[in-house]
User: Fold these one by one.
Assistant:
Number 1:
Amino acid sequence: MRKWLDIYRSVGIEVLALMGAKKTIYPFETKVAAVRAVVDEGMTKPEAMARFGIASTSSFKKWLKAYREDGPEALRPKPKGRPKGAK
């Protein structure tokens, strides 16, 4: 319930209605901007989520951890599937 309330406060009721419908893929630039707003500019997590339209608190926390450990390159999309030549 608390997670839903945080999501409602940060991005509004529309996102709650869409939860579970489709996984949103955020661009690299959006991820970096949102994380930098929290880490470098001192913005709170809910404020950053509202400003950048991020619905998932768990994803945002993962981005923050990855950014703090490995920098912005850790937020780049990873290639899907097997590498070429793998059997």
Number 2:
Amino acid sequence: MKKVILSMVIILAGIFTMNAQSAIRKGDLLVNIGMGIGSHHGSAAFMPTADLEAGILTGIAGGKGAFTTGGRLGYYGTEYNLSAVILATKLDFHYQLASSVDGYIGQTLGGYFGNDTGFVYGLHLGARFYIQRDFALFSEVSAGWATPFVLVGVSFRL
């Protein structure tokens, strides 16, 4: 049992002390693939998403901040057979919290189209934990209309 615990401690220490760089640079392209849950018209909604982000302004806030812009393609389906494709723009401010942690806050604005149509808008707060320079796990919470309350997934730097 002691060997198992010691092995787990060594593995976790290795993960948390990785020197992966998470700073976003101008011109970086990031792809985020996530699965979210939310509510739409008072009904639980299943919301897979795919985002593309591009670094547009970097080196701000003491060199640890950056802005990205991009888009979101998503889907939602509810228990009452409402479903739609989501097309939205995103603008995020990122701040490097640690060598492998990128925190961000931003907005989503767009529309959804299907057997239900309307506007998408929301504010979100999230973080990426970089496992490697080009691969991260992310988690995001948001408030708005036709946006997931909680979103988790993976990010790839292209």
Number 3:
Amino acid sequence: MTSTKVIIREAQSEDAQGVLNYLKFITNETSNLLLTPEEMAQKKLTDEINLLEESSKSSENLFLLATKDEKIIGTANMKSFLRKRISHRGTFGISVLKEFSGQGIGSMLLAEIINYAKSINLEILELEVRTDNIPAIHLYEKFFKIDHKYYDGTLMLLVLN
């Protein structure tokens, strides 16, 4: 039995239905994502096509797919901030199907995000991760070290209720 290789590539508008199918599955598989299954049910194919078209035309955004045997098994997206004072920063997110977790796919996606961020001269990448999402934290820790030391950021919140 031959094993096929995981391919990391930029998403195109033609991938919209596959992305929707992937998101529908993964939002039911995990609660670690910002998108809920109920919100996913509201997404329209035309909206996803437009989102992917805009992303592929934009130098500030990137939407990646990890595929194996032409099946989407992971995604990563990065958005840089457009406001001048924070235009040196970007935010990103990654998801991988549980079936493929622990196989280095998240690392491959994150490496591509970092390379792209550097290519557009970003200085800082940000993400928010739940404290109980230990596999994700371990993934990010592999990349978020400076001189073999971890540095924490500070997120300040004003809770209004």
